[in-house]
Amino acid sequence: MTPSVLILRPRPGSIATTARAAALGWHSVSTPLFTIAAIGWSPPPASDYDAVMMTSANAARRGGAGLAGYRRLPLYAVGQATADAARDAGFTEIRSGVGDSAALVARAAADRIGRMLHLAGRERREAAHRGIVIDRRVVYGADAVDALPDEARAALGDGAIALLHSPRAAALFANLIDRAGIARSSIRVAAISAAALEAAGAGWGGAGAADQPTDAALLAAAARLCE
């Protein structure tokens, strides 16, 4: 039987995940759990900061014209997808991390960054470090669905492995599964990070986390669940 995955991230990220899954011979079903929209913001002076931080590719995709003033600054990005989106937005000095936001902030501290601008989503996990002043601006929001999509329910019934691309998505997915009355023990989940796997909670029929926050590592984690 062809292995199958359920992709829950919004477009355009879901398109890239679908393509990577297809290249590996996986069947995929895409049913986003969030709708992403830009939020208007007032860019503070770039001269106030030593660096910029993005913990989601959506910050680069939805930040708008306000991003232009910060392109000369180093940009710290969680994961390859965020780094790629930042590059597409015109940033050139990109320092990407393979861990979570806390690891990225620790790296910035090691680089002697004193003040950093975090371009973030409305809902986020905040990381702090005593050696850095972090100023945050919300540039996008992610509105969640209020019920498990029928296509997702059908894919899970056929044995698809759910791909969880963030802690928030993982927590929402778990909540939707419970509200739908579906036994967690009948579902396998693969998470982009240990933090996302923790957010999903326990009781799954199979669960694993990627060793790096990339699609390739996430699909490798899904593949291990098929062994």
Provide a descriptive summary of the structure in words.
The model has no long low-confidence stretch (mean pLDDT 92). Helix content is 33%, strand content 25%. The longest helix has 13 residues, at 167-179. The protein has a six-stranded mixed sheet with strand order 3-8-7-4-5-6, with helices on both faces. Strands 2-1-9-10-11 form a five-stranded parallel sheet, sandwiched between helices. With 227 residues, the protein is an alpha/beta fold. It has two domains: 4-33 and 145-224, Rossmann fold (3-Layer(aba) Sandwich); 36-143, Rossmann fold.
Shape verdict: elongated
Query: Strand-and-helix sequence, N→C?
Result: EHEEEHEHEHEEHEHEHEH
Summarize the main sheet.
6 strands, mixed
| CATH topology (fold) name of the largest domain | Rossmann fold
Strand order of the largest sheet: 3-8-7-4-5-6
Number of domains: 2
CATH class of the largest domain: Alpha Beta
- Taken as a percent bin, the fraction of beta residues is 15-25%
Query: Cα distance, first to last residue?
Result: 13 Å
- The gyration radius over C-alpha positions equals 18 Å
Structural class: alpha/beta
Would you tell me the overall average pLDDT? 92
Number of helices: 8
Reported CATH architecture of the largest domain: 3-Layer(aba) Sandwich
Low-confidence stretches: none
